[in-house]
Amino acid sequence: MLDVKILVYIIIGFFWGGLTAPVSIRLAGLYGIIDVPNARKLHKGLTPRGAGLGLWLGYMLMSLVMSSEVPELRYIATGATLIFLCGYLDDMCSLSPFLRLGLHLTASTLAVIPLHLPLLTSVIAVIWLAGVTSAYNLIDGMNGLCLSIFIASSGALFLVGRSYEGVYMGAMALGVLCWNFPSAQTFLGDGGSTLLGYLFASHFMMTAQITLQNITPGEVIMLFVLFGGIPVVDTLTAFTRRILTGKSPFYPDKKHLHHLLILLTGSNIITVTIILSLQVIMLVLGLQLYISLS
Length: 294
What we know:
Layout: H1 4-31, E1 34-35, E2 47-48, H2 52-66, H3 72-92, H4 97-112, H5 119-138, H6 145-161, H7 164-177, H8 189-207, H9 209-213, H10 217-244, H11 257-265, H12 268-293
Antiparallel strand pairs: 1-2
């Protein structure tokens, strides 16, 4: 029997995401937050971005309601605000990658502080959280891809520890997905994609807090790799490839997994389906490992 509380979170989250997306589209038009196609991008026309605005506001609302019950949300919400505003500003005027990295690490530290993890695990957690934040941004190069991965990962949060916050966040993303896939009337933008990465990773650590406190750093890394999934694997592969060819790891290219698959399949829908399936496989493996360690 479906938990009524789950149903309520799904309905509120879905309609919040779906109804705030047009507002973000309107604001994008007013303030020129428009994604312009180029040789590296797959879309052809001018597209409003900044759909993460509704996701951020919806998360702030949830945090306000639930912070007395889940005090860690205050730390995550503060970090999420730093992440979103940094990305939203970057959508309007390009920021220094070092400034973004510094803000990402600061926000990640805020989320890790209340978890009381062992020192080495805390360091690994901060690095992983900042990495996932960037990884979701790097994989956001195709309609529906980043949102689909986040929805699947949010579902895994509920399986890890009955995370109702995960249900709500996934439902919000599903509402926005209706405006982004299969054809895109809006994009997440850097603010939205980095926000999704940060929210998933920080909520995973909060949900798995007790387990993370009692396992070895090696086991922590294994969990982080599996739950980070395809965005993390794709980002590590991209950074390694760029460094080996003498380029900056932050140098953009068209050799991400979704770029290669779209060349192979010629279909956005098939490409998203393949990558989402790989993400689900990694999440299932992560859940099995989590259960064995708990």
